[in-house]
Structure formats: structure tokens, C-alpha cells
């Protein structure tokens, strides 16, 4: 991790702004964002002078490889909070923040029991707000994840035909992701065909593909902790005029949004550009989800591109733009690409966006 110092400085700036002495980070993707550690058990403590990763004996050797710039505490035969207390990490601290959206009630109770002299404050979106603006290194990781997913999609297209199941397609995507260098899928792969393509989150089922059907394929992978997220809609055989019409509306709505995805624009305005176009074409009631979301160390993060979001887009945001139309008993269309925000938008995905007929 080349940019650890920049990230740490930003966390300390946030601590100063919030008027707290330190932050205890418990959400594993955020810990990986700051430290590079990818294990399944950890806490990260950051104060104005200390930066400490706390994990257990299973990761004693792993942290030596992954974590270079943080002090390390290894708990053996005791909890992570117990070793934190034993080493007096919070000694003389009065106000410590915790991640409100990621700490369980039980965890907060244990914090208060273990550190009776410390007052704990719920903090929202501290890491999310910092990580919403990507460094050059992070952008390269996202590009690498996209490149893997696109290679996989081009391979999988060759296998799609009537009679193959949605699960067959999803399984092949998962296998090829790892074969081509990904850590794992970014989420449960969506393969939704025929009537199921009208389900926005139609995770792959045993349904067999039939000729003439839409297939919505929403897929992504994780590379070095960073996510890709892409959706393409295809037709098995020749598309009908109605299928072409629906696809073109979604395509045009997405194109309009991409053209306007620039720094300084509010996220809700960007959402409205695509949403209003779909409404004007008479399909507004069939587009019920937000236009997009940020991606990075998590598949859904800031900024949210939704009607309620007042977030002002900044240089370095990486977002998805994914309008859709979902008509029950007919089918659905979604097109999703990953966009780097700048003074002009940069589309990081390179797969063709036109309707694919196979």
C-alpha cells in the first residue's frame, strides 16, 4: 500500500474535526482500506499519535506480510478488546469514536464494560467519506477488477444457449473470476432470464434459458480488496421490436447520465437525469431503484446516486450508473458501467453497451 500515509492523515483530520481523541474501527473492509490486512478478525485503533492493528494468533504471520506501517497487537487466548485493555492503548483518553453503522449493540456494551473511564461516541461514515475519493493506486485496483470481469464475460457469452441454466452461467463466472486472478466474486452473481429478468436482484436459479428471452447478468469481482460491478442484458436469439424499444430507452437514459457525471454535480440531480428520461418515455413506474452507488473496498458505498442523496460529486469518485426497466411477466433490462468522476466522466468499463443477440 503506497498511499497508507495519505489515508491515515485524513482519518486524523476527521478525528480532530469531530473533537474526539481516537477512533476504533471494527468494519473489516475499512480495516483493509487503512492497513492492507485481509483477515477475518481485527480491530484498528487510530489516535493522534498511534495507529495500531489488533488481531488474533491465527494471523500472526499474515500481518507481518500485509501490515507494514501500523503497530501490531496479537491476542492469544483472549479477546481483541481484552488485549487492547491489557496494553493500555486507551489510557488517558476520554472521548473515543466507534463505527455506528458497523458496531453491534453487544460490541458497544463490551466496549463500555472494558473501558469504564472512556466515553464512547457513535461516528457515522468516517471511513466512507474518506474512501469515496479514490487514490491513483485504488483506481488501478478497480481497473484491474474490471478487466478480469470483462474477460470473464466475453468467455461466458460463448457458452450461453437455450437449455443452459442460470446457475450454470453464474458458476462459470465465479470459476473464471478466480482463474483470471480475482480473490472472489464481488457479490452473488445475478443471472435472471425471461420473466425473472424483471427481478432487479434475481440471483441465479435453476431456471433453464429459453430462446427469445432477455438475460440480465450482473457480475463483478474483487481484486486486491477492490470491486468491479457490471451489468449487461442480452437476448437469446433475435430481439423483438418491444425488447429493442425497452433496451434503447435504458441505453439512452444511461448515456445521458454518463455524459453529465462530472465533479460538482449533486448525486440526486444525476439520478434525475436518467429517471426523468425513463418517465418521459412512459416507464417511470418500472424503474424503482437508485441510479447507482460508489464502489471501492465495498460493493455499495458512498456516494449514493439516488433521489435523496445531496452528495456533491468529486474528482476521484468511482460510481456505477445502472438504470433499468423491469416489467412483470415481460422481462427487464439493466445496463451498468463503472465511471470515474472528473471534470469529464471516464467510463472505466470497456464492454460494448449495445444490445447483444446470441
Model regions low in confidence, pLDDT < 50 over at least 5 residues: none
| Span between termini | 42 Å
* Fraction of residues in helix: 25-40%
Approximately how much beta-strand content do the residues carry? 15-25%
Radius of gyration: 23 Å
Q: The CATH topology of the largest domain, please?
A: Creatine Amidinohydrolase
Strand tally, please? 20
Largest β-sheet summary: 6 strands, mixed
CATH homologous superfamily descriptor of the largest domain: Creatinase/methionine aminopeptidase superfamily
Overall residue-averaged pLDDT value? 97
Structural class: alpha+beta
Provide a count of the helices.
10
The geometry reads as elongated
Side-by-side strand order of the widest sheet: 4-3-2-1-5-6
Organism: Candidatus Chryseopegocella kryptomonas
GO molecular function: aminopeptidase activity; metalloexopeptidase activity
Protein name: Xaa-Pro aminopeptidase
Keywords: Aminopeptidase, Hydrolase, Protease
Question: Keywords, please?
Answer:
358 residues; alpha+beta; Creatine Amidinohydrolase, Chain A, domain 1; Creatine Amidinohydrolase; 4-stranded mixed β-sheet; 10 helices; 23% strand; Creatinase_N; hydrolase
Describe it for me?
The radius of gyration is 23 Å and the shape is elongated. It contains ten helices and 20 strands. The mean pLDDT is 97. It has 358 residues and is α+β, with helices and mostly antiparallel strands. Helices cover 34% and strands 23% of the residues. It folds into two domains: 4-131, Creatine Amidinohydrolase, Chain A, domain 1; 136-357, Creatinase/methionine aminopeptidase superfamily (Creatine Amidinohydrolase). A hairpin with a 5-residue loop joins strand 18 and strand 19 (346-347).
